[in-house]
Amino acid sequence: MDSVTTAVTRLNSGVDIPLLGLGTWKSKPGEVRAAVEAAISAGYRHVDGAFVYGNEAEVGAGVASCLAERVASREQLFVVSKLWGKYHAPADVKIGFMKTLTDLKLDYLDLFLMHSPMAFQNEGDDLWPIKDGKILAADVDYVDTWKAMEVLVKEGLVKSIGVSNFNIAQLQRLLSVATIKPAVNQVELHPYLPQPELIEFCQSNNVVLTAYSPFGSPDREFKNEKNDPCNLLQDPVVEAIGSKHGKTSAQVLLRYHTQRNIVVIPKSITPSRIVQNAQSFGFTLDGEDTKKLQGLRRDWRACDWDAATTSVHPNYPFDS
Fold it and tell me: Is 115 within any annotated ligand binding site?
């Protein structure tokens, strides 16, 4: 049976990515270092982060602590970060990358993603340059950004590169011109937003999907047609499947992805939940379970980047 340390899938770059990683979005300073240490101690070998999360120095401190204590070796770990939209201009790509590498105190990254296809104006210290409630777009083609990211691979600074929040058309365009093909597309995926068309496209083009917000981002409330709150972790269908297998709702939602070779990066700062998430392997959802989970499709998106939208940014990815 697979475990958190052995469950991997192969990227088109030829390296393996662990199917379960620790997400660090919205993990506060003062908490995220302990979460990283707890995860690696529990067998996680994959840590996902991003410059815009503002906590990479602490993530790096957690990784360094585990390396110093020989909980894992650097070669065993898979560390991921993302290029923020302010650094999309080709001349700024390495600058943005090196900010991350310096904060993490590492010599290289295992995977570096373009955080979205949208370039933002790079002026001042504001990571979200917004005026009148709208993001200030920069006229930079994500293809040009990608070409600068390819140089990072050639320089040995990162082993694999990929994208995040790309739709099918944007990914198709990038695949048609890339010298180094995107290895990963990291997107919001869960039974309320299953995106089967995107999954089919990525898997048929040898692009591994990573699911962020696999629990539907419980702190962002969904509402049904009756205006009642809907929490995926408390959905009766998910709870019933968990009872059937003797598993928690979180474990069911994680297995829903990993069973299909989709990587998951649940965020947690609670050591007991970090361990519990690591125990999401070792059981199989059957055809009936999968059909019921697929029946939850609502096309509800928790992370819609509403400061952008198509009217504001030409590369806004979520209208298709």
Answer: yes
